[in-house]
């Protein structure tokens, strides 16, 4: 796995593993006082009875997740939640992933390849050591492009630069984008003039994940949709990304406060 | 509904002592403090012991009210609670959150001339005393029937079904989607109205009686109704409760700082966000808070905001005080704590700052016209009466719709046009053989005790079903 703050957890959860399909998520909670954190699954192995999540450590909760050692357990894991990806043969498909979004993209890509599509994948990260699942993505793609912001591996630049070329050279029938919201927004804007249907997987703030709190509402085609029951995947050409970005920042100051307090305690 | 002693009456109702408003604004501890034994006995002695008591008719679970009140009067407190337990497994909860004024107390003969007997306060007294003194329910249980029932949802409906079926000798497993059991009692009703310790104790007592509780299990996702039957459950009760919160669909509603009451209360209650950062889930703390809606959930939200340090908390409601659906006691408590009512007012749009956070709300004044379908006078906007108010946190408490998770994934389950489950009001039977339903997923938003009443009726019907048809007559225990 990639170095630094990108973590993979394989979690024993036989009931979830049996049901999970590409595109669905779980909610994890580390301990009694922890937050409920939704994470889209990278893998579900019904035989081993495990699910796999890959996440970047960004705050106190993911810090707590990171500190779990092999054999430790999450206090709570619930799922699978959300609608699975609609996997069908449409022809030429491009799968675009950024950062840990590639973890979510991988099972979708595999499913689309398995459905008989020709798959061109584009994955990116800030630096070479942040690229995840490159081999896996290669094994389920007809073509794979790798990009890094600093040029330490593959194309020096953003995934959208490669996507532009692909859009110019190929006739695509579907695009799937999973990664930072800004990346998904740019991909959607780029595919729009080519009239290529674009699916994005969103990860808004939510509490219960079962259609109760309404925190995960996203404006799609001018209408409120709940990511937990209607999503997490939506038509990227219809999502109000700017509003999503604002809503994701709702608790920025509290998140800083929580992280700071956590680190202070660790330092003591 | 001020719980102050009313000395003008011949029969003075004993009020329950409360935390002073100025003090309770600063904490999440319970507001009413409970009766002393002396107070309870004095209040109980007001009961006329009617021959055909109308209070019992007003109780959805038919508690023998005159009997338990008489036992309190005779200071037989342990017998009083056992009398209540015969009909109600959650008296510490119901004594606190039931709308007695429209149910048992609303029918009390004493209420015709003076104040009705304080049945809720007495029920709470008996239940709290039992908890404190460790009195346990030792009523004889039926022989094990060998039947297994799956209960989906651990709110008031599900808990009642579980208690009733356990008492009849059936095995029960409760499936809960959240990480803690209790449903709305845990995520919805705040600590200051229903301490979570009480809910936990009631659930623990069910577990002691043999109930199995599986948290983090979403029926419809983790496991389906069909699979539960495959696992050998003989009957299934669905009590999944309220669902997607309603929004007003007016401009600016998705600005940061506008939350559904479900989200706000779940953060505060289930996730204990009022203790952030000690607990990890944050909750927005507004300076000028607006709550839209005027039901009990709106009052709970407003009173939570007061306790989280808001300078102003305003309830915005489009009708007048008379039409407010909240209990009079809740409105009274809220006003005592400084919550203002902005009546005959409806929001038109929300105003945001440059960061996309809510900064204000444009409203319009309303007047009441002819009665509408609900029988209440329809609010009509007064042209040209628009005005703006400043606010940095808005909580929308205008109700919920049906939860789609289980219903969408269960083939053959008939729903009405609003997405609620079609169930026989007398028995709770659904369109699927062996599946019963009750509570908010059938009726839409209602009360704890109504859900419990539905649970009671469903349990009766499930029991009949399980012991019918000579399935295993030797072990059915009736």
Automatic annotation (TrEMBL), chain A:
Cofactor(s) required for function per UniProt: [2Fe-2S] cluster
Positions bound to [2Fe-2S] cluster: 213, 216, 228
An example Gene Ontology molecular-function term: flavin adenine dinucleotide binding
Gene Ontology biological process terms from the UniProt entry: pyrimidine nucleotide biosynthetic process
Positions in coiled-coil regions: none
Ranges for domain FAD-binding FR-type: 1-87
UniProt-listed InterPro entries: Cyt_c3_hydrogenase_gsu, Dihydroorotate_DH_Fe-S-bd, FAD-bd_FR_type, FNR_nucleotide-bd, PyrK_electron_transfer, Riboflavin_synthase-like_b-brl
Keywords for this protein: 2Fe-2S, Iron, Iron-sulfur, Metal-binding
Cofactor annotation comment: Binds 1 [2Fe-2S] cluster per subunit.
CDD domains assigned to the protein according to its UniProt record, in alphabetical order: DHOD_e_trans_like1
Protein name according to UniProt: Putative dihydroorotate dehydrogenase electron transfer subunit
């Amino acid at each position: 796995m990639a170095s630094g703050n990108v973590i993979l957890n394989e979690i024993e959860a036989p009931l979830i593993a049996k049901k999970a399909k590409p595109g669905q998520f779980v909610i994890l909670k580390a301990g009694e006082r922890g937050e409920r954190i939704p994470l889209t699954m990278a893998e579900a192995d019904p035989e081993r009875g495990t699910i796999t999540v890959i996440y970047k450590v960004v705050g106190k909760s993911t810090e707590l997740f990171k500190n779990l050692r092999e054999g430790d357990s999450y206090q709570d894991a619930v799922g699978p939640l959300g609608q699975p990806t609609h996997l069908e043969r449409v022809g030429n498909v491009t799968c675009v992933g950024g950062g840990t979004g590639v973890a979510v993209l991988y099972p979708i890509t595999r499913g689309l390849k398995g459905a008989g599509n020709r798959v061109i994948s584009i994955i990116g990260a800030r630096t070479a050591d942040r690229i995840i699942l490159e081999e896996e993505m290669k094994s389920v793609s007809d073509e794979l492009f790798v990009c890094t912001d600093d040029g330490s591996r593959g194309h020096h630049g953003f995934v959208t630069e490669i996507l532009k070329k692909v859009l110019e050279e190929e006739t695509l029938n579907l695009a799937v984008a999973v990664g930072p919201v800004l990346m998904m927004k740019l991909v959607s804007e780029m595919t729009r003039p080519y009239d290529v249907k674009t699916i994005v997987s969103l990860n808004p703030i939510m509490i219960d994940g079962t259609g109760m709190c309404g925190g995960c509402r996203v404006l799609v085609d001018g209408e409120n949709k709940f990511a937990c029951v209607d999503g997490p995947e939506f038509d990227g050409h219809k999502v109000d990304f700017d509003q999503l970005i604002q809503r994701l920042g709702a608790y920025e100051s509290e998140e800083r406060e929580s992280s700071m307090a956590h680190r202070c305690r660790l330092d003591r | 509904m001020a719980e102050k002693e009313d000395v003008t009456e011949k029969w003075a109702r004993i009020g329950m002592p409360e935390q002073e408003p100025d003090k309770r604004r600063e904490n999440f501890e319970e507001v009413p403090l409970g009766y002393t034994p002396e107070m309870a006995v004095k209040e109980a002695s007001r009961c006329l012991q009617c021959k055909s008591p109308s209070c019992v008719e007003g109780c959805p679970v038919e508690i023998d009210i005159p009997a338990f009140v008489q036992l309190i009067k005779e200071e037989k407190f342990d017998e009083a609670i056992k009398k209540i337990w015969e009909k109600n497994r959650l008296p510490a909860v119901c004594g606190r959150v039931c709308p007695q004024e429209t149910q048992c107390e609303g029918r009390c003969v004493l209420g015709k001339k003076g104040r009705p007997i304080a049945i809720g306060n007495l029920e709470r007294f008996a239940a709290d005393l039992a908890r404190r003194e460790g009195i346990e329910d030792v009523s004889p249980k039926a022989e094990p029937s060998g039947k297994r029932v799956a209960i989906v949802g651990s709110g008031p409906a599900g808990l009642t079904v579980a208690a009733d079926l356990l008492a009849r000798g059936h095995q029960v497993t409760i499936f809960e989607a959240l990480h803690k059991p209790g449903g709305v009692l845990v995520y919805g009703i705040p600590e200051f109205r229903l301490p979570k310790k009480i809910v936990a104790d009631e659930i623990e007592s069910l577990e002691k009686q043999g109930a199995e509780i599986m948290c983090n299990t979403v029926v419809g996702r983790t496991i389906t109704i069909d699979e539960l039957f495959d696992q050998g459950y003989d009957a299934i009760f669905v009590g999944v409760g309220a669902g997607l919160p309603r929004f007003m669909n007016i401009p600016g509603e998705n600005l940061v700082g506008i939350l559904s009451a479900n989200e706000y209360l779940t953060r505060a209650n289930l996730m204990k966000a009022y203790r952030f950062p000690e607990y990890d889930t944050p909750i927005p703390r507004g300076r000028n808070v607006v709550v839209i809606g005027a039901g009990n959930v709106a009052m709970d939200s407003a009173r939570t905001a007061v306790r989280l340090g808001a300078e102003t908390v305003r309830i915005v409601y489009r009708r007048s005080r008379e039409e407010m659906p909240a209990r009079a006691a809740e409105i009274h408590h809220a006003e005592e704590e400084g919550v203002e009512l902005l009546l005959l007012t409806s929001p038109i749009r929300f105003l945001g700052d440059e960061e996309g956070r809510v900064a204000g709300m444009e409203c319009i004044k309303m007047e009441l016209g002819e009665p509408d379908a609900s029988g209440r006078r329809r609010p009509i906007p007064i042209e040209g009466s628009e005005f703006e108010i400043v606010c940095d946190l808005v909580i929308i408490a205008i109700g919920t719709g049906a939860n789609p998770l289980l219903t969408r994934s269960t083939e053959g389950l008939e729903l009405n046009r609003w997405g609620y489950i079609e169930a026989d009001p007398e028995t709770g039977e659904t369109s699927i053989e062996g599946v019963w339903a009750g509570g908010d997923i059938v009726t839409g938003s209602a009360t704890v005790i109504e859900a419990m009443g539905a649970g009671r009726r469903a349990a009766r019907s499930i029991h009949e079903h399980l012991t019918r048809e000579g399935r295993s007559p030797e072990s059915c225990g009736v």
